[in-house]
Design goal:
CATH topology of the domain at 59-71 and 101-265 in chain B: Rossmann fold
Shape of chain A: globular
Number of domains of chain A: 5
Structural class of chain A: alpha+beta
Low-confidence stretches of chain A: none
CATH architecture of the domain at 59-71 and 101-265 in chain B: 3-Layer(aba) Sandwich
Strand content of chain B: 15-25%
Distance between the termini of chain B: 35 Å
Mean pLDDT of chain A: 86
Oligomer: heterodimer
Helix content of chain B: 25-40%
Structural class of chain B: alpha/beta
Chain lengths: ~850, ~270
């Protein structure tokens, strides 16, 4: 049988090549994802692990959920600078220094605009560490910062912007006003030019503390120990001297936490990319099932002959599986290697836009090879089980009978199973979205998988009505070739359905995302119109909206007579039942001048009453809380737990969700304030445009901040949503390309199957052009079938997700009709492109040979 | 009715022409003139047609017979514009096929030629009615209702029109194929072993229809066959051997054909 397997593969090598290509693409995607993320992760890990300092132990506050002192690991509370003396006096400590290290030092170019628009690598501000034992920084040229206006910057940033020692450069630190510094030196991070591509600006300690709002505080105290003391020895010596708010850790543990933070970031990135890759492979499995099924239908005689000659069912079954196994292994191997090249391509692509990536060694790791090979081969073999079963059921008598082209009707059993699987899928999706379990994503994925399988198995039922309906105009305007295209598309509903279902998957994801995006835009718009009374909003510019706002900005703007009311909203993290969640604060005296709450119950004027909290209706109903209830709220920055009375419950919208407290409470419980938006109202008599112009003029002193009115705010939201959507769509294109290959494959195989019929049509006068028209429109019909199934499933998925995200203020479901029109154009193009080769092949058929084909 | 007594010989193109006719022999619907067809090259070359010349008069039913490999099918394919000759000429009406482009050939087949194949060759997805009008539909023309009705009635297909080929018997399918050939009123119909797959009753019935189309519809038919009975229904039989015409027999009878076949066998 091995001989028959190999011979079978070689006879159909072109058809198998098309099938294998689907696997190659999917596996290449997996392999590229793993290679790229592993390479980058290793690079980042190495920077931390290979930069030796003499630091043996660190002292810091306890972990602060939602804190800003993050770096790459968990955020810790800062400690008072007085603690330094305690650490220095510990027996065994030879050197100790305080460090502040936070993001938010925007470097300005010569025109006064930030170099980075946000969204790039972070820009850290920190202090120059005096002890060379403790400091990872090494001066490359110039000298350390000694004056209040001195700064040392990392060598990578200096060379990127052509900054030299002695040059004066401007900064905005923490969203404040412009400050001018003189570059006193340029430093490397150990041997590296930079810390993983981040910009690092080193100031004198007091300057850094002042700029970051950490006067009298350190984020961390670094300590070195005498020789003979291990890191854990030093930690254990320091620990007993520390007050309850601080903890000691070995440097190795601290670095381990940073590395773990990086690894988990790349882990998430890898998971997201792998999901896309798996979608592509899943789509590929449809192509495999379809191709193997068609090949087996076409080889019925050959299989029957084998059976007649004494091959058992098991042997036939194993023969087909063996074919799949060989195909899977070869295709996966090609895919793994192709993935390496793809990873290099992606790396250059990402490096060329934005701020670039650190150098990464992109090599195939054994794990990548194993995962790619196993996934690709497994999917191929599993996908071939159904066709193999069908092959094993070919009866020997079919060797002498004519192979029937008749389409088998769907059995009742298949319909029942299809419906049941679809329902299970819907249940899985619903549980994933609404049950709030810890395995929500897994349930969602499993549910979607089942839904796709269920819908795919029912899809043949839709072929005749949908393709029949869509085919009517084609038959009308394209004459007989159009009519033949229509009958060809529906003659084998299972085949057409399986081909279209592959396209359905990609389309449904694109449509689902579009529904989500459109709904988000609509929800924002409605919330703006209904709830926001502020004329202008100010927050850090750029689509990413990163960065801070200094409290002095609000004060400065409040002095401008163009505005009758100016105030800001602040945010922070609180713990409710030990779970961290975010809270925002507003001034009870004037917040209703800027926005109104859509009150569900309670009194919106009660915010100023002591220890009162507002929250949205979703939270209230999830926890079963009512107005007047008292809840325990923990404020991690101070550690205080406060019994807060619920004063008002409001309906969430795209602007206001979650928990809300008064600015007085915020000032008490959040020593490190975080302003996220400034709201302004124009003075009566000041026109909208005049107010905006005045605001922009005021903001010239705060170059990291931007002014928005409702229209530009909405545009900004839409723009960032559109960018995200585009990024996702690019990854989904892979799934759609594979599905398009599936159409090519099905058409090509159908044409081989219909050789004799095509010969007849050509003999009785169908021209080559008409033949191409016929194939082309059959292809378009299949593409549209996939489009329609995809749009239906996609809208259903999108609406479900929007509903599930109602707690984030996504209250409005919007269907992106304009996008749907574009998708229809896309389906048309896919259909036309997929038909090119099969149509050419059909038109070039040798008529005489074709009509004499058996 | 053609004149059965006339000894129809292959007309050398330039030389003798029937006295009453114009110089280009207008009564011939299709002709092969010195047609040579060689398959393959060099040592592997096989000569299927070896300088054959044969002509087909309007409203005449010709059967082509000959042993396997004598070039029957090749001749039919070349005459029908499905295959090209290596040298010599094939002329349908006034048109020499060698001068035509692929597209012109296709249009000629569509508009001037009808086919009946051994294996029915219907489009499985179309109903009998749609199969019958297919050549006209491809041309974007509507069938003449009277003709269509006439053909359907003659072929006794009125109650089978909505059926798909798979739902028809072999005889019915071949009648649909014949109806398809007749309905566009082509200049000439080529039939390749049309009774080969039919039982004797269906075969006889089909031959009756063909005969009728020639007698009452002035249809020209050229039929390749192995079947003595089928050949005996024709107006003449052209015997081929080794790619050449070896005999033309007017008003053939089964016995006469059989006698001749025996001599060929020797």
């Amino acid at each position: 049988m091995a001989k028959a397997t190999i011979a079978g593969l070689l006879t159909h090598k072109l058809r198998l090549a098309l099938t294998a290509f689907a696997i190659v693409l999917g596996v290449a995607f997996v392999s590229a994802t793993l290679t790229l993320s592993n390479g980058l992760q290793t690079t980042f890990d190495n920077i931390f692990n290979t930069t030796p300092t003499g630091v043996a132990a660190v002292v810091r506050g306890h972990i602060e959920p939602g804190g800003q002192n993050g770096g790459f690991g968990d955020a810790h509370r800062p400690v008072p600078s007085s603690l330094l003396a305690t650490v220095q006096q510990v027996d065994g400590v030879t050197a100790a220094e305080g460090v502040v290290f936070r993001a938010g030092a925007a470097l300005l170019d010569k025109s006064g605009k930030p170099y980075s628009s946000g969204g790039g690598p972070p820009e850290f501000a920190t202090n120059w560490i005096l002890s060379s034992t403790l400091s990872p920084y090494r001066i490359r040229s110039g000298s350390p910062p000694t004056q209040a206006t001195d700064v040392v910057i990392d060598a990578a940033t200096a060379s990127a912007h052509g900054i030299t020692v002695g040059q004066r450069i401007q900064y905005v630190i923490n969203g404040g006003a412009i400050q001018t510094f003189t570059v006193s030196g340029i430093a490397g991070y150990g041997q590296s030019d930079s810390l993983a591509g981040a910009t690092i600006s080193l100031f004198r300690l007091d300057v850094a503390q002042q700029a970051l709002g950490l006067q009298g505080k350190f984020d961390q105290i670094d300590a070195a120990g005498g020789s003979g003391l291990s890191q854990s020895d030093l930690r254990d010596r320091i620990a007993p001297h520390l007050p309850s708010y601080a903890e000691a850790a070995t440097e190795a543990d601290a670095i381990g936490q940073q590395v773990a933070g990086i690894d988990s970031f790349f882990g998430i990135l890898r998971t997201i990319l792998l999901v896309f890759a798996l979608v592509a492979l899943f789509v590929g499995s449809y192509i495999i099932i379809n191709t193997f099924s068609i090949l087996i239908a076409q080889r019925t005689r050959e299989l029957a002959l084998l059976r007649a000659l004494g091959a058992t069912r098991g042997q036939v079954f194993r023969m087909v599986l063996a074919e799949a196994l060989l195909t899977g292994i070869v295709a996966s191997a090609i895919g793994v290697v192709a993935g390496l090249f793809l990873a290099h391509g992606l790396y250059s692509l990402v490096s060329s836009v934005g701020n670039g990536l650190p150098k990464a060694d992109l090599v195939l790791q054994p794990s990548t090879v194993i995962i790619g090979m196993v996934l690709g081969t497994l999917i191929t073999v599993v996908a071939s089980i159904l066709p193999a079963r069908k092959a094993s059921r070919v009866s020997p008598v079919e060797a002498i009978r004519d192979a029937a082209d008749a389409a088998q009707p769907l059995g009742t059993r298949r319909i029942i199973v299809g419906v049941a699987v679809s329902i299970l899928g819907v249940i899985g999706i619903a549980l994933g979205l609404f049950a709030g379990t810890s395995v929500a994503f897994q349930l969602l994925g499993l549910g979607a998988l089942l839904l796709y399988l269920g819908v795919s198995s029912l899809a043949p039922l839709t072929v005749v009505p949908i393709a029949g309906f869509l085919g009517a105009p084609i038959a009308r305007f394209r004459g007989t070739p159009g009519k033949l295209a229509r009958t060809n598309a529906i003659r084998a509903p299972r085949r057409a359905a399986a081909t279209a279902a592959a396209l359905m998957i990609g389309v449904s994801l694109v449509v689902g995302i579009a529904v989500l995006t459109e709904s988000a835009k609509a929800s924002t718009q409605v919330a703006l119109q209904q709830a926001v009374k502020a004329d202008y909003m100010v927050f850090p510019g750029g689509a990413s909206g990163q960065g801070a706002i200094s409290p002095m900005t609000t004060a400065a703007l409040a002095k401008d007579p163009h505005f009758s009311a100016v105030d800001d909203l602040k945010q922070g993290t609180i713990l409710i039942n030990a779970a961290s969640t975010s809270v925002f604060s507003a001034n009870p005296a004037d917040y209703q001048d800027f926005f109104t709450l859509d009150v569900a119950s309670g009194n919106p004027n009660s915010l100023g009453q002591g220890d009162t909290i507002f929250l949205d209706e979703t939270l209230a109903s999830n926890h079963g809380w009512r107005v007047g209830d008292t809840i325990d709220v923990n404020f991690p920055q101070t550690g205080a737990t406060v019994k807060e009375r619920i004063g008002c419950i409001f309906n969430p919208n795209a602007i206001t969700t979650g928990y809300m407290i008064s600015s007085q409470q915020y000032a008490m419980y959040f020593p490190e304030a975080q302003t996220f938006i400034i709201l302004l109202r124009a003075t009566p008599g000041v026109s909208h445009d005049a107010g905006l112009a005045a605001l922009n003029k005021d903001l010239a002193a705060f170059p990291t901040l931007k002014a928005y009115d409702q229209a530009s705010f909405l545009a900004l939201q839409s723009q960032s949503l559109d960018q995200l959507t585009q990024a996702i769509d690019i990854f989904l294109i892979m799934a759609i390309v594979i599905a398009a290959l599936g159409i090519v494959n099905t058409l090509a195989l159908s044409i081989i199957e219909r050789t004799r019929e095509l010969g007849l049509l050509r003999a009785i006068g169908l021209t080559r052009r008409q033949t191409r028209t016929m194939v082309r429109w059959e292809s378009v019909l299949i593409a549209f079938l996939g489009l329609i199934l995809g749009v239906v499933v996609g809208i259903a998925l999108g609406v479900a997700v929007v509903r599930a995200l109602a707690f984030t203020g996504l209250g409005h479901i919007a269907i992106p009709f304009v996008s749907l029109l574009w998708y229809a154009v896309g389906a048309l193009v896919i259909g036309l492109l997929a038909a090119i080769l099969p149509a050419r092949r059909a038109a070039r058929l040798n008529v005489l040979e074709a009509i004499s084909t058996e | 009715m053609p004149d059965n007594t006339e000894a129809v010989t292959t007309p050398p193109l330039a030389a003798s022409t029937p006295p009453s006719a114009s110089p280009v022999a207008p009564d011939f619907v299709a002709r092969a003139v010195d047609a040579v067809k060689v398959y393959g090259k060099g040592d592997a070359a096989v000569t299927a047609l070896n300088g054959i010349s044969v002509a087909f008069k309007r409203s005449q039913f010709t059967a082509i017979m000959g042993p396997s490999g004598s070039g029957k099918s090749t001749l039919l394919h070349c005459l029908a514009g499905l295959d090209s000759v290596t040298s010599g000429k094939i002329i349908i009406g006034d048109t020499e096929l060698g001068t035509l482009s692929e597209k012109q050939l296709t249009l000629l087949r569509r508009d001037k030629v009808g086919f009946i194949f051994q294996a029915y060759n219907l489009v499985p997805t179309l109903s009998a009615a749609d199969n019958i009008v297919l050549p006209l539909a491809i041309a974007g023309r509507k069938p003449d209702p009277a003709t269509l009705n006439d053909v359907i009635t003659t072929m006794r297909l009125a109650d089978r029109l909505t059926h798909r080929p798979a739902e028809l018997s072999g005889g019915q399918q071949q009648r649909v194929a014949a109806a398809r050939a007749f309905v566009s009123r082509p200049d000439i119909i080529f039939a390749d072993e049309p009774t080969g797959n039919l039982d004797s009753r269906s075969g006889a019935e089909l031959l009756g229809f063909l005969r009728n189309a020639v007698d009452n519809g002035q249809q020209t038919i050229v039929m390749v066959t192995h079947d003595l009975g089928a050949a005996s229904r024709a107006d003449r039989v052209v015997f081929l051997a080794d790619g050449k015409v070896v005999l033309e027999m007017a008003d053939p009878t089964s016995d006469a054909i059989l006698e001749y076949m025996k001599t060929l066998g020797n």
